[in-house]
Amino acid sequence: MRLSAFFYVLKQGVKNIFRHKLFSLASVATMITCIFLFGTIYAMVTNVNHMVMTAEESVGITVFFNEGLSEKEIQKIGEEIQAIDAVSEIHFVSAQEAWEDYKSRYFAENENLSEGFEEDNPLANSANYQVMLSDVSQQAKVTEQIGNIIGVRRVNSSQDLANTLTGVNSLLMYMSIAVIGLLLVVSVFLISNTISMGVAVRSEEIAIMKLMGAKNSFVRAPFLIEGMLLGAVGAIVPLAVLYLLYGKVIAIVLHRYSILSNLLQFLPVNQVFRSLAPLSLIMGIFVGFAGSFISIRRHLKV
Amino acid sequence: MIQLENVCKEYSAGMPAVRNINLHIKEGEFVFIVGNSGVGKTTLFRLLLKEIEPTSGKIVIAGQELSKIKRRKLPDFRKNIGVVFQDFRLLKEYNVYENIAFAQRVVQTPTRTIKREVPRALSMVGLADKYKSFPDQLSGGEQQRVAIARALINKPQILIADEPTGNLDPQNSWDIMQLLEEVNANNGTTIIVVTHNREIVDRMKKRVIHMDHGEIINDVDEGGYFHEA
User: Which of A23, A227, A254, B43 has the smallest number of Cβ neighbours within 10 A?
Assistant: First the structure.
């Protein structure tokens, strides 16, 4: 395509938006609704996902050793645990640290009660490794693997919590895939329908162009540009609204459910938008493009 | 220039819209295709533009056999044929200048050339001072002149007009025919006018091809509407 033709096509694409205001408005409104819903669900899913991940990170396995192991042997056990794939982090807690931790939790206001134990640490055998997993669903397997390491006396884990979190996580994933997929299909359908009406109004213009010897690509280009621009506007508007609403909604939720504030770990708005903004823009532009492409196809057979 | 051999077109089986059309139109000829409504004139018009395909037979235009032109080569073929319609088919949102320029835009003519040639085409059809007007501000005759300028701007070898005077009064009809005759004489453009306007046909004294029931029943040089062979 010549440069002058390219600019002409670009100009026509923009002009068409204003020339057929009503159809442009209908397309943009449909797009705004779809992207707004998509953005809302996306923000919810990423936040819930983040909360589950945070919860998962706090689920650990505690590994106790046989009595009388040397420092070197304990270190070797640590290395073996570290070598397991699903293990993300491992932290050694000495018997002294375990006692300090216990004391601070149970004798917090009556430290004198614990004085009697100073010389004889009741948790002398409770030096352990705190093991964190990168994937909580692997907990049972990892527990078994660690249990088989020579020198390990006991492995403590909370299988129920791990199972619940894994369940919540996969349920969330399937639900969000289903909802977003459905939304995408509905958007393409709605938008191509709206664009179809706009194209039908201009079928005469298209027929004239074709009879004058216009190539299909030349006829199609302004419509595609129009569709992509409408898609972009239809994405930017709900993104801006979501950006402004995000902080406010979180403040309301946190205020209303302040009792759950430990569990409700929301992501900062910028972190959500780092992926939501490009995703929505691409989705808007793609849906606009696909909608126009589908709508104009049958008018090109002149 | 235009050759049709045993051309038939059936929209539904056993109901031919045109049948056994054998026709030869030479380069630079001015031809009327006449007949009442529903005799197959418009089908012939659409066949020549390759808007529809014949059920059987062969159409050759400017050395190209139409059935062998691939879809993506169709724009190149159509560039060579100017088309004028009864209802003008101007774009209402475009002014006169833009309507004519549109024909050049769609075949990707450089802007410089468009700026040079559109005023020239407007002068030719006598509308140089109306270039800013919109179609609904023009009379029927003026609109048809714009349509003719648009059809001719890409310098086609052939101009096909489907009932170009159908919506015009006698004076405007005659003026449009004069214009087409000028184009034919000055540019050597082959002109085919599909019409049922007797007065014009009789007055112009050109070749007349008479159609009835989908067939050519008469083909006479310098004929009239009711000329009998």
Answer: A254
